[in-house]
Each structure stands twice: as C-alpha cells, then as structure tokens.
Design brief:
Two copies of one chain form a homodimer.
Chain A lengths: L1 H6 L3 H28 L2 H36 L4 H26 L8 H8 L10 H16 L7 H19 L9 H20 L2 H12 L2 E3 L3 H21 L25 H31 L1 H9 L3 H13 L15 H8 L30 H19 L9 H22 L15 H17 L4 H9 L5 H18 L3 H9 L19 H4 L6 E3 L4 H10 L4 E5 L7 E6 H11 L2 H22 L4 H21 L13 H10 L10 H20 L2 H15 L10 E2 L4 E2 L5 H11 L3 E6 L2 E7 H10 L13 H4 L3 H20 L9 H11 L1
Parallel strand pairs in A: 2-3, 6-7
Antiparallel strand pairs in A: 3-4, 4-5, 7-8
Helix pairs in contact in A: 3-4, 3-6, 3-7, 3-8, 3-10, 4-6, 4-13, 5-20, 6-7, 7-8, 8-9, 8-10, 9-10, 9-18, 11-15, 11-16, 11-17, 11-19, 11-20, 14-16, 15-16, 16-17, 17-18, 17-19, 22-23, 24-25, 27-32, 29-30
C-alpha cells in the first residue's frame, strides 16, 4: 500500500514518510549508541563491583546476625550448662547440615573453595554447570549458613567463585543489549577481573585482591587485564566500605582490622631473626596443613565402608564433624582453654592488639577489654592457651575445610598464623621486657606486629602466594612492618613450595581437574627433556583419500577430541585437524536417513517398474510401501528442524560388527559421553528399525551401507582447523610447557618438515612434569567424579554408557586394556 | 704406567689407587654440586639484589655529596651575588656536560631512561650493545653526575636499566661456573626480575617495584617469575635500608619519605570529590607532559639548522638547557618564588609534611622547619608560590628529560604531582579551616595526604600505571589513604590513557623501537578485523624443487628474516621456514672455494692428461700448476677451521649481473647489515681474485657458476624451522595481537588447509593497530638511528653499505622503489 501511495505522488505523504524514516533512523541510531555504551567494559566492571559489594555487605550482615543469635542463645541459657551445651552444639550442626543439604540439592558444584575450579576455567577448560544462576544461589546461601555456624571456615575462596558467577551472569544479562559479550577471550578477561573483585570486596583489599587472584588463578597474566581488576576491585572495596559508613558501623572508610602500631620505630633490626623464624616455621606449618587436609580427604575416601555409609547419608559427615568441633570449643568445657567463645573476627582483633598481654606477668592491673579477656585463664598461662589454640584450630580447620559446603581455607589459616605470630611475639616480649634496643630510648616489643607477620606468612605458605603481604597491609591499614612481613612471607613460600603443592593445586589434583602443573623452580633437568621424549608416536590420522570406513574406525577408537588430517599416508604432510564432532556429523550425514530413504525410494521405483513390467503388483504390498514412504517423509521433515544435532542417524550395526572383528585391540570409550550418547542412540534406533522392517530390507540396507562406507570422503563440507599448533621434536619441555600454558592448548602436533610424526597432549605433558617432580598428588576418585555423580546430564550418560558396555560385551569378546582407561577418562574431562 | 702397576698386583698401589679415585670422584662430585648450586636462581637473585643495593646506596651517597657541594659553594659565596650565581650555574652545567660527554663517548646507549628499551628487549628483540659492561659504567657514572647537578631528573628508569645490566653481566659471569645461563628464555626471566629489583632498590619499595616493572615492561607476565621479582627486590630493598642503618642515617628500617598522618580518621568521606578532582586533573596533566616532552624532541629534530648545529656540538644543547634551568631556579633570583634552594628530596619531604601551611593564615606562630621555610615568602602567598613551582617545574622537567644523559622522568613528575596535591590540600584547608566533619569531634584536613594522592596520580598518569599507588604506600610507610589514592590513580589513568600514550611508549615511538603497540581499551572494532584484511599476500617462498638461482634471487630481494619453504609452487603446502642466514650459507657453500677448486683441479687434471697425451708439457707451466695447487690446498685447510662463518666464498659477480638484468624492480637492501656485509666481502674477494687470475679462468668459472646455479638445491644439510607459527585467514586482530605478544613473534604465516596464502609481520600488525587508533606517534628519525649512529660495528657496516650502493649503481641502472624503503629498514630493526 505504501508503494501505491507513493506512485500517486502526494507531497504530504512524502514529508510524513521522510519524517518517519528520519525518526526511525534516529531512534535506531540512539538505541545502537546506547547499546554500544552498554557493552563497554567500565560499565560492566562498575556493575560487577556494585553487585559484589552489595552481596558481600549483605552476606557479612547475615553472618553477623547468625553469630549473634548463637551468642544470644548461649548467653540466655546460662542457668543450665546442659541446655547451654545443646544450644551451642545444635545451632551449628543445623546450619552446616542445611548448608550441605541445600548445596547438594541445588548445585553440588558450589561446594568447596572454588579457586581451583576458577583456575581451571581461566586455563580455558569449560567446566559444566559451574557458572550458572543455580550455583550462585547455592553458593551464597550455603556460604552464609556455613560461616554463620562459627566453624573455622573462610569466605575468600567462595567469594572468588561468587564474583565469577556474578560476572558470568552479568555477561549473559548484558549480551541481551550488546553483542560484544559473546567473545570467549573477552569472557575470560572478565572472569579474571571478577576473581580480583572477589578477593577485593571480601577483605576490602583492592590491591591485594588483584595480586592474590593473579597469583592464584593465572599462569600467564595479560597486563592489559590489570586495570580491569584494579578498577573493579577498587570500586567494589570502596562501595563495600561506604556501605559500612552509611550503616553507622564506621565513622569513615578505614581498614577492616585496623592496627595502631607506632610509626616511629616499628621494630628493631635485631628482631628480624625472630620474624625469619616465624616465616620458616610457617612454611613448614603451611605444608603440613596442605598435607593434613589431603590426608583427611584421602582417608575418608579410602575407607570403603565409611565411604559407602557416608555416601548414603550425605549429611551425616558434616553433622558429625560440626558436632565434634563445636563440642571441643564449648566455652565452659574445653573451649575455655582455646578462647572458644570468640568468633574469627574477634580473635583476629585481639591478636592484632597493640598491647602486650604478658608484659606485667599476667597481673591484674592490665586493662583487659572483652576480647583479650578470653585469653586470660585463672589456671593456665597465656602461652599454654595460645599453643592449645594453635594445635586445636590447626586440625579443626584442616578437617572443616573438607566438608561439602561452600568454604575456603584462607581465613582459618590466617587466624592460626596470627596466633602463632602472637605466641612468638609474646615470648619475645617476655624475654626482652625492656625491648631489645638499649641505645637510650626504650622501644618495647609489639606482639601485635608479630601476629600480623605470622598471619601473612602462614596464609602465604598454604596458598603459595606472596601477595598475602599486601592483603595484610590493606586489612590492618598499616605498612610499617613491610620488611619483616616480606621476609617472612618469602621464607614461608620457599619452604612450603619445596615441600607440598599449594592448597588449591592439591585440590586440583584430588579432584583431577584438567590442569597443567607448574614447573617447579630450580628443576633444571626440565631443560633437557625434549618433545620427542614424551610425544605419542602412534597418531590417529585421516588422509585426503580416506574412506568413510576409515572415519568410522577412527571414531570407534575415539579417545581424541580432534583428529589430524594429513595429505596421504605416505607423505604424512599435516594439513590441519578436524574436530571429532565434525567427523561424527559427516559420517552421520553420509549414512543419513535421507540418503537411505532416497536409496530405498530409488530401489522401490526400480522394483515397481520391474514388477509392473514383469507381473501384476499385489495392491496390499504396494500400499504398505507407500505408507512406509509417507511415514518416513514425515519423520524426515521433523528431523530437518534440528539439523545441528546428530539426530535420526542410520543404523551402524554392520559396521560395528566388521570393525570389532577386524580390530582386536580396541579401546572402548566407556566414559566419553557424547560418543556413547550417539552410539547408544544409534543402537536403539537400529533395534527399533529392525523390529519394524522385514529381514530382507535390513540385509539390503546393510549392503548399501557397506558400499557407502567404502566411498571416499567428500571434503567440501568439512570445517577444518587449518593451523593446529605444531611443535618440533627438539622443542624443550620448558618451552612446550610455556606454549601450552600461554595459549591454553589441549594438544599439539609434532611435525618434522611438515610431516606429522607425533602428538603431545596435556596428559603427556602432565606426566612428564610430574614424573620429574618429587611432590606427587593422590589419585583417589575418578576425575571430575564430584561433578559427574550428581549432574543431571552426567548421570544419564553414565547409565547409557554401561548399557552400551553390556551390548558390546555380548557382541564382541575383546579385552579392554586397563592402562588405557585413564586415557579415556582424561579426554572425558576435556570434553566436559 | 698405571696399567703396568696394576697388572703386577700390588695391594698398596690398589688401595692408593682406589683412595685416589675416590677422592677425585668426591672432589668432582662436590665441585659439580657446588657448580649446580651456583646455577640456582636464588643465589643469582641474592647476588643481584646485593649488588644493586650497594650500587644504589653508593650512588645515593655520591649524589648527596655532589648536591651538598653545590650548597656549600653557594653558601660560602654569599658575600657576592654574581659569584654566587656563577657558582650556582657553572656547577650543574659542568656536571651535565660531563655526563653527556662521558655517556656519548663510552656508550651512547646509556642515555635516556632505559625502560622503553628494556620493554623491547623483554619483548624478545635483541638490541645491540645494550647490555654490556661499557653501558653499565656509562650509565652509573652519567646518572650520578646528572642527578648530582640538581636538575629535575629521575633515577628510576635508569635504575631499571642498571639492574638489567647487572643481571646480564652476572649471567655472563655465572655462566663461567654453570651452564644454565645460556638458555635465552631464562635470561629474559632474569631480566624481568632485574627490572623489579631496579625499581625496588631505588625507592626501597619491593612490592611497588615488582608491580611497576610488570606494568611498564610486560604485556604478558609469567606468574612464575613473580616470586623471583619479589625475592630479589625485597632482598635488595632490605640491604639498601640496612646500609642506611649501619651508616647511622636511620635508627631502624623505615620508609624513605616517612609520613605521620593520623590513623584514626585519615580523611572524611566528603573529601573524596577533591581527591577525584586531583585524579582527573592529573590525568590531563600527565597527558600534557607526555605531549610536551614529545613536542620538544620533535621541535629540536625538525629544525634542521638547529639540529645540524647541535649534532656538531653535542654538548651545547645539554649545557644550554642546564644553564636556563639553573638560572631560573637561582634562589636569590626567580628561584625564591619556586623554592629553588630545595633538592628534590627536600621538596618531597616538605610536601608530605603533616602540618598545614595556611592554617593560621601565614602567621608567624607557625613553627617552620628548614624545608618548609622555603615555601614562605614575604611578598607572595603560598598558593602563588606553589602554582609558580608547578608551572615552572612542569616545562623544566619535560625539557630536562630530553637531554642525552641517563635520566628518568618519574621522580620529577612525582614531585610536580605532590606539589599539585599540596596546592589542592592547602586550598581545602583554607576553605574548611575546621575540617568538614561537623559531628562533634573536629578532624582538620591534612594537606600532606593530598600531596601523596597527587604524587601517585600524576606519576601514574604519565607512566600509565596503577602501581604508583603501591610505590607511594611504601615510600611514605602509610597506607591509610589507600582509597583516595586508588580512586585518583585510576581516574588519572583513565583520562591519560585516552589522550596520550605513556611516556615510555611515546619514547618507543620516537625511537622507533620494534615494539608492538597495545590494543587500547574499549576498541571493539578490533574484534572485527581479520588476518586476511591485513596480511601480505605476495609471500616470498622457495619450493622443494628450487634451484640455487631461485635462492639467490630470494636473497637479493631480501627484506625478510626468514623465507617460507613450500612443497611446490602448485600445491603451496607450507613445510616450514628457513632463516635467511641459512640460505646464504647454503648458497655460499655450494659456490664455495673448495668446490670451485675441486672443479679447477679436475679441469687441470683433465687438461694435464690431454696435454701429456697430445704434446710434451713445458716444465715451467707444470711447476706453476703444482704451485697453484699447493697454495690452494693450504688456504682450503685454513678455511676449514672456521666452517661456521660464511668466509672464503665464491665470487658472485655473474649471478649478480644476471639477476640485475632479469629483475628490474629490485629492492636494494641498503641497511641490512649482515646482508651487505657478506656481499661487500664477496665483492672485494672477487676483485682480488680477478686481479690474480688470467681472464680465461674467470670466464670458465663464470660458466661453471651458471651451471651450478641451475642445479637443484640439496635439502639434506638444511636447518629448517619446521613449525613456524601459522594463522588462519579468519583469525581476529585481537587474537593475532595476543599470540604475537604472548610468543614474541616476529611474523606468522597465514595458511589455508596447509597451503601458504600470506604472511603477517609485526609491521602489518602495528599498522593495523595504529591505523585504528586516534593517538599517533611521530616519525622523526630513522629507526634505531640513535644506536646506529655511533655503534662501532654499525658505523663500519653503514660505510660498507654505501660502498656497495655505489658499486651497484655503476653496474645496474635500476630504480629504487621509494615506498619500499621503510620496509627494508623495518627488517633491519628486527635483525639487529
């Protein structure tokens, strides 16, 4: 109608039309401008910082409420010790059980710290279900309850995960507006910034947060991401502290655990040996903590009867552990010897206190405030109490962090470190009551400074980071002890790194996440290992002349994510690599129902012609054929709506039979989910078809299939990665490691003048590195079992895999080579 | 004799022999153990830290002495103002002239900051003569004199360079003991640590040093290098400060510019807008500084007459600039309005002072100390003096940092920033004399805090770093202003980064160092540029069937560092790449004297046989032939001692002639040093041979050469890089940039299913990135001219190049395509 109007040439219409066009143009332009702005990094980062600050503040508020409630209950029941004990114990048991149950039901991925998984994700591996809204809810609720229980748990690791979840959800949300957030490398950049925000708004420590997140999650860090982290973390920390001011908790923006050490003479040069001792002892302590933590996990899993029992009653283990810990810390009971009534925060405040507890030899004239009073016991010395506190909290923390609730280990370790530092500091103060420096002015020793040093050193040792020093500066608001802290942290790191992996790497190994271990420092022998020493020489490849049968065989062997494409088996010139899914689709398409139907139709046409020529057709038979055709056509149309999925494939039974007899030493991909999925589907489909069809039809189709399989592959529709990463035989392990970590590679082909001679995957590299390392991980559970156990898609695929396994065993009698099993499961990890 | 002894079986001998073997074994083992220990990183880092701390301390000591001497002279001559002026002015002029002259004579590479060059070196580019002992001496002596002159120059950038020099020299020194320091990637890791040490021991700021060096020098940072930096920088800072304690300068280890701001209430929330204003203004100021600095360099170089004059009298420019600056800061003259008598350090101390200068409205009851007194002028307001100080120092610093002496821009900018912050702080204090917070207790405003914020913000803006915040914390020993500082630094960075490159990137562009520019933030269009848009499609390649003539032609075209090897011109399947030097060696070897001599000998033998058969030989002629042979044999043996160098090559004149007539549109590699070197050598050699030989011989050899050139290349002895980095047409610019920076690539081939279709080099990438950027560098001097002008090897090769040029022009009359010239010079940069 518009064209009609315009052909009649009416000027009013013309003007209106133009105005309309212009206004639409303007509106579109404005909208596009706004959209493009929405896509900008800084808006995203501000939003992220804001959201995380709010989350952090609200969570802190709720945790404080929960802790207060426990104290209130405990205080209100002071008439009856048994009631008091029951209240003291039941409260955390209920909270932890709820946390564990909630986490388990909503999103089991939310359990634990989250830093190991973020490290893996930032390495480029996609962990399923790890960055969803469900996980966010589970993590936030679970963490609040867990911390509200008063158990020695931390919130730092989970906060890294929560911030990443926030970032991922924000990305999704903002991609409704702008299209920029689809870029994968950008997403990873944003996740890296989110990790910094997580630590930053947890401790109100933007600089320490950025550095800690870099140290903990990255191998190679893009400096251009640096400002993102700083920007978002600073904004987040700022809002977090401003909220506290608005809430009248604070007068102005200050540090979380503000200290008031003197500025003029923070410490004497002669005190440095004591600080060094703290560092070295913390190094050993940190390694011991990691070892103990792993030992507990290992023990719980090795004991099959316990394990079975616990698997059935999932909430029993958390409840028992909580019961044990709260019983021991019951203030009127054993808790009186370890300041059981203090929360983590109160404990830290008392440790960082400016005054010396032992100065006047425990006399009464020392003006105790409420927190410090907990360390004063009529029967026991303050040293004894500190030692008991350290020992008890040590194993309690190591035990508590194995619970299946969202929790971190940083804060408990930090507290233990502070206690140890305080112990050394108090000892020094008792030893030199007048201070060390005797040149006139007396500067007494400040045990609080020792506590700060100890906290930084022990947390640094457990996490293998140096930036705990910066976190400590920001937490206390004082930097006067910078040199002692740096010295202690570096010494602690040196000791701990040579004894044990970091707590996060330990968890990565326990969970068998697909992560490349670090090259340890000073391992010079690594410079002498070459790629040719570790590469797999028996590479699966397809050539330009490959038939569909070759493709099929490659798919059956199938522990590879990608397959190499070479020019020919003689020249072996590497042309590129093809994804497994591509091959599968190609094969499925070639033997597709459409093509088979075409064949059947052609055959039917030919037969009908033959029949019509030779004899009169039985009308019944003809009708059946037509029915068949109609039914198939409908289903074909249906399947054409979902062309991307490998749906409606041709039965592959003959091919399966052939290969299983031909290849004796075959590997069954027991756990490759996509693979088994397809084949199970094929198999079921095939059985259905078998039942529906007369025997003769099936045999003809078998023949047709055999024919089709011997055809050469058509290359036009292939999606080939023409530049897979290539190494040379002489490339050193060191360089290979660098390249793999830099580019986040999964595998690389080894070529010699363009000829493919081998392949190196993450697995070989990991083996090579771990083989030359003294520290070894433990192999307890199957990889990613914690995710697969309860993931919805995981469970179904596993049951299907077993089904296929049975079928397979019935049809063939091949032996499964056991040593190849971890191989298949490794590729499973990668494909997840 | 030993075997004799043992066969006679004497038990004493046996025992002694065994003991000897054992002891030798032990000794060897011990020595090996020690050697292996010597190679360890931590020993290296401790040595590096120790040496740098000593260097820093001694330099600081000398600089303080020099500055004191000036003050002493100035103070001693207070009877006569003219004498006083002469002393005040002559002293820095002499020092700066000496510094410039010394640097120019010993090692011109030592001039300037050093950070831009270190950034380039850490990028993987080898800059000649940049890490030698000579440069070290020049830098240390030059820097001491330059800073001793009292000009607004910094020591931070040069310290990065000095530390790198130290590390490189230590590496060399330690490679006498262990063999590990030959690894190139290791060297770069050590240099990265050295940069951290440089900043760390300059400011006694280990954490800030590590972060600053990362931000300033790296694009992608290996987190495993992190501990190295921290370890060495902490150790260095520790020793540096301990030396001060031992020297009785300090009572204990404290910060360099210790502040004493109150801890309870460092600032009010309502003061934050003022801090934000400081940040934004500093951003503009920083950009202006970078622009001004570049403008001065540009102006000095554009003015040809000035330039020529200055080139002749190299010391005149520094002397004139110094004269101008010292005249203006002469205390009894204009210097009284800008606190001219204070050194940089004193100025900073007065800015960071706790007290408010304007509190009582400039009344006398304020207790001025010596430094603050400089800001009090009977006629002028403190605000006026501060404004004059800022404006004057701003252009003075921008001018002074262009001097050809070792100097940095960080410290002057830091001082200006502190002055600006102080100005804002004093204004605030004057505006709100009772402080902003009116809820009962009065907290007055602390202008010193503003000065700290301003210093961090302006230095952050000029260098485009966030870690200046951390440096400030460590310098002042207080972290209470963390949030204002972070906010100001981030805002300053945001403004400055969107206006101008950092001072270091600006210098990189001015000096045309081969560095890849950063992708700016928020440039989304970069995600849409593909490799196919920027790649060069006309790739030079050789095939498996190439003749030596093809090789020769490729070498003549020669602006490439490496040449692609493809299977054949039809298939274009990329097999690898070959270095230019390899090709040259191959060609030289094929047409070598040995092979030619063999040919001559064969020919001579054949002739002799023919002669002896046909006619009687003249004895004289036969003797001459034998002599010839003997002489040639000797020279052959000589040359066999140096098989690696392309020495004693065959004359290539006929080949040169042929190609020059065949290829009209040829490019002459005017500045490729290795190339011209070889050819000049060939040419001279050829002329010598021509004179020594009869004409007939030469013609025969020419024939033989023609024959040889048409032979196919023998591939067995080639050293091929079989895995050059490959990209795909669809690779985005963003990803390409990442890969190039991650791997330090120089070029990458673009392939499509194994077929070579293009090449991308650093140059194309740089163009593509800069083409889409608004901020552009200046192109004033030929690349690396500052290094080439005076380098010993550089000069000789340049003169040779001209020589060759003349020869070439005489023989051929080809036109040189002008637009290809930057191309050749670019490859020159890379090959240096």
């Amino acid at each position: 109608s518009v064209t009609q109007n315009r052909t009649r040439y009416s000027p009013e219409y013309e003007v209106m039309y133009n105005a309309l066009t212009l206004s639409v143009f303007c509106a579109v332009h404005c909208q596009r401008f706004l959209m493009s702005r929405v896509g900008e990094d800084w808006i995203f980062l501000i939003l992220l910082g804001l959201v995380m600050a709010l989350v952090s503040f609200v969570m802190d508020f709720c945790i404080a409420l929960l802790l207060q409630a426990q104290k209130w209950m405990y205080g209100g029941l002071d008439s009856n010790v048994i009631l008091q004990y029951l209240a003291w114990v039941t409260y955390p048991v209920v909270l932890i059980s709820f946390s564990a149950g909630f986490t388990h039901i909503v999103a089991p991925q939310a359990a634990g710290s989250g830093i190991p998984e973020m490290k893996t994700i930032l390495r480029g591996v996609v962990l399923k279900e790890y960055l969803t809204l469900k996980t966010f809810v589970a993590k936030v609720v679970g963490l609040t309850c867990a911390l509200g229980s008063g158990l020695p748990l931390g919130k730092e690791g989970p906060f890294v995960h929560i911030a990443s979840l926030c970032a991922a959800l924000l990305c999704k949300f903002m991609s409704f507006f702008g299209g920029i957030y689809e870029n994968e490398s950008r997403n990873i950049e944003m996740l890296a910034a989110a990790c910094a925000v997580g630590v930053g708004c947890c401790f109100a420590a933007p600089i320490g947060g950025v550095l800690f997140s870099i140290e903990v999650t990255s191998t190679f860090f893009a400096v251009r991401n640096y400002w993102r982290g700083f920007f978002a973390a600073t904004f987040s920390a700022f809002i977090f502290r401003v909220l506290a001011v608005w809430n009248r908790d604070e007068e102005t923006i200050t540090a979380l655990f503000k200290t008031r050490f003197r500025l003029d003479f923070p410490f004497d040069l002669q005190e440095l040996p004591a600080f060094a001792v703290i560092g070295i002892a913390s190094g050993f302590g940190g390694a011991l903590f990691v070892y103990l933590n792993r030992l507990i996990v290992q023990f719980m899993r090795k004991q099959k009867t316990i394990n079975k029992f616990l698997m059935k009653k999932r909430l029993l283990y958390p409840a028992l552990v909580t019961l044990l810990i709260s019983t021991l810390s019951f203030p009127p009971g054993f808790g009186q010897f370890m300041a059981g009534q203090l929360t983590q925060k109160e404990t830290l405040v008392s440790f960082f206190d400016n005054r010396t507890w032992t100065k006047q030899g425990m006399t009464e004239d020392f003006n105790y405030d409420s927190h410090s009073a907990a360390w004063k016991h009529p029967q026991a010395n303050v040293f004894v109490i500190l030692v008991i506190f350290i020992v008890m909290k040590f194993w309690m923390s190591a035990l508590a962090t194995t619970l299946p609730v969202p929790c971190g280990a940083f804060m408990p370790v930090f507290v233990i470190g502070a206690a140890f530092g305080r112990l050394v500091g108090e000892s020094m103060a008792a030893w030199f009551p007048e201070g060390i420096n005797t040149d006139g002015i007396i500067y007494p020793i400040v045990p609080g400074g020792y506590a700060v040093v100890g906290a930084a050193a022990l947390s640094g040792a457990v996490t293998h980071t140096v930036s705990t020093a910066v976190i400590v500066f920001e937490l206390t608001g004082q930097i006067s002890h910078i040199l002692p802290i740096m010295i202690a942290v570096i010494l602690a790191n040196a000791v701990a790194q040579s004894l044990q992996p970091s707590i996060y790497d330990s968890i990565i190994r326990i969970k068998k996440l697909p992560y490349l271990p670090e090259l340890g420092w000073g391992h010079h022998e690594k410079y002498n290992i070459r790629v040719e020493d570790i590469m797999v020489r028996d590479v699966r490849y397809i050539t330009l002349n490959s038939t569909y049968r070759d493709l099929h065989e490659i798919l059956l062997i199938g522990n590879l994510k990608t397959v190499a494409l070479v020019e020919s088996a003689e020249s072996m010139i590497l042309l590129g690599s093809i994804e497994r899914a591509q091959l599968q689709a190609l094969l499925t398409q070639h033997l597709s129902r459409e093509r088979r139907l075409e064949f059947i139709r052609d055959r039917a046409d030919a037969e009908r012609k033959r029949v019509s020529v030779v004899s009169t057709p039985s009308s019944e038979e003809g009708g059946q054929k037509v029915n068949h055709e109609v039914r198939f056509q409908i289903s074909t149309e249906e399947s054409s709506f979902t062309p991307a999925r490998p749906i409606s494939p041709k039965p592959l039974k003959p091919a399966l039979k052939r290969t299983s007899t031909a290849e004796k030493n075959i590997e069954i991909p027991t756990s490759n989910i996509t693979h088994t999925h397809t084949f199970t589907y094929l198999w079921k489909h095939f059985k259905n078809l078998l039942c529906a069809r007369p025997q003769t039809d099936a045999m003809e189709i078998e023949e047709w299939e055999e024919q089709q399989l011997d055809e050469q592959v058509n290359f036009n529709s292939w999606k080939i990665d023409p530049a897979p990463f290539q190494l040379v035989e002489r490339t050193s392990l060191h360089k290979t490691h660098t390249i793999f970590s830099l580019l986040g590679l999964d595998h690389a082909y080894v070529t010699s003048i363009g000829r493919l001679i081998g392949v190196v995957s993450l697995r070989e590299l990991r083996k090579a590195i771990e083989g030359s390392m003294t520290v070894k991980g433990v192999k307890v559970r199957p990889p990613l079992a914690s995710f697969r156990d309860s993931g919805t898609s995981g469970t179904s695929s596993e049951s299907e895999a077993t089904e296929l396994h049975k079928l397979w065993d019935r049809h063939t009698s091949i032996s499964i080579p056991r040593e190849h099993q971890p191989n298949t499961s490794d590729s499973d990890e990668k494909s997840q």
